[in-house]
Structures are given as structure tokens and as C-alpha cells.
Amino acid sequence: MKFRCALLDDYQSVATTLADWSSLADEVDVVSYQEHFADEDALATALADFDIIVTLRERVPFPATLLARLPRLRLLIASGMRNSVIDYAAAEHHGVTVCGTASASTPPVELAWALLLGLARGLVAEANSLRTGGPWQSTVGADLHGRRLGLLGLGKIGSRVAAVGLAFGMDVCAWSQNLTKERADEVGVTLAASKQELLATSDFVSVHLALGDRTRGLIGADELALMRPTAYLVNTSRAAIVDQDALLAALRAGTLAGAATDVFDTEPLPADHPMRTAPRLLATPHLGYVSDANYRTYYGHAVEDIRAYLDGTPIRRLGGAA
Asked: Of 9, 15, 137, 151, which is the most buried if we count CB atoms within 10 A?
């Protein structure tokens, strides 16, 4: 009997075409799901008969309650080598091996700059106006050269964002709780004295931190109030790092020039979510890692993970699952 493999959240229907699954054809039946399962009951019902599940990033949580309802599951593959929504202890308890894939940091860097430039030059408003016969030029763009770019986080992604800012001739500074002057000097940026100082002095602030206990709610109403009314905030990291209600209030009040976000508290975003209609907001549907090369890596490595598991030698294991 063949193994059954479910590919979750294949919105673009590309999971089976961006990798060569033919090496598994004799042993594995692959089913791609384009729709997102909104709750645990729907997931448990749809996935009960699958031995293998491939999930993208952290779109779908796998808590102990769900894992207990998937009796056939033996292999769970998550794109990337870090996933905070999988209960690894529960996976081990139920005999589920958890594996990951490589993931490039360049796609989110590129999207962060697409969003920042889109905000700075009013690209969406101007493009829409041109297409609909609106006014010819209705915005005045914000300059980048000579302006301060504040980065919250200077890891793999943040440091690459910094390099682009420096190429634009920006004054780049950075802050995180563990950031040292030596690391800032290595990247060629200024170490901000504090989070507050970075927010108060930056013309553009971009978030590049991992979500954890110390970063959840890191930017709330008090922090947003420190930012200049001409400043812009970009978040391509995790929604929970920025208090969503506080951000909406600041955008509605006009205390920020604008914001861009690629991440949301609920994904996919409900049709009536206030983020869909917030003023001064450029929003994209979590595209940070969605690129041709990254998807080829994700699904190509998923095939490798499955092959290795079937051969009894699992690779790229996460969380110590057995």
C-alpha cells in the first residue's frame, strides 16, 4: 500500500511542478490542497488518512491536540529549519518524525525593500490613479538618500537590508536586545543606544526579529508614539511583534506617514479584517518567502526528506522528533 502525502496551502498550485516528485511515484500518492483549512477540526478531518504532511512555514499550527487526531501521520515536513507552531514533544510522543528544508534569506530582503520603496514613492496610489484616470501625480515621494533607516534586528535578513540601505546612501542604525557594537561595526551601521532612540530618530523603521517571548508586542502604542509623523514602519517578520490594534490606531490617527506589512495576526486575512481597509497601509499576503527559487528549494528538499525517511535515514530533522 502506498503512503499518502498532503501538501498544504499550495495556493498557486505549483508544489508538484517546482520539484521532481517522480522518484516517489511508486511509493507515495501526493495530494495538493489549494484551500486553507481554517480550524483544527477541518484539518483533522481532511488529514486523517495521510502518512506524510508538507506544510509551509508557520501557516498551520500542529499542537498536541491536532497531532493526537492524526493517527496515520509519520512524517511532518516544514519549510525552513525553524518552526514555532509545531509541538515537537507531542510529535515525538506520537512517533512523528519532523524534518525541515533550507530557506533563503534573500526573498524577504527583496520584499522588504519593495514595500519600503512602495511606501516612500506612493506607488500603489499613483499606479491606481493612472489606471483609473485619476490625477496625474498626486503624491510627493519621500527621499531615501540621507535619511535614517532604523533596523530592529541585524541577523541574516536585517544585515542584508542594511547593505541595501547603505547603497542608497541612507544613515543606517540598528537595535536588538543582544546586538553588540562589534556586530554593528561589522555590518557598517550605527548601534542605536536603545529601541526608543531608534524609533524616535528614524525616518524608516523595518522589523527583522524572530518572534519570541521577548519580542512579542515589542512595538506597542507607546513605541509607535515615539515615531515621527513623517516616519514609515515596515514589518515583514511576524505580526505579533507589532501590536496590531495600536498600529491600526496610529494609521487612522495619522500619527505615522504610513506602514507596510506582509504578516498578520490571522492568515489568510479574513474578508472583514480591518487591515484590509486601514488608511496609509501597504499590505501584501505574506509574500516574504514566496519566490520561485525558494519554492524550488522547499519542495525539492521535501522530496529529499521523504526519500530519506522511506530509506530509514531521515535528514534535516527538527526538534529531536523520533
From this structure: 151
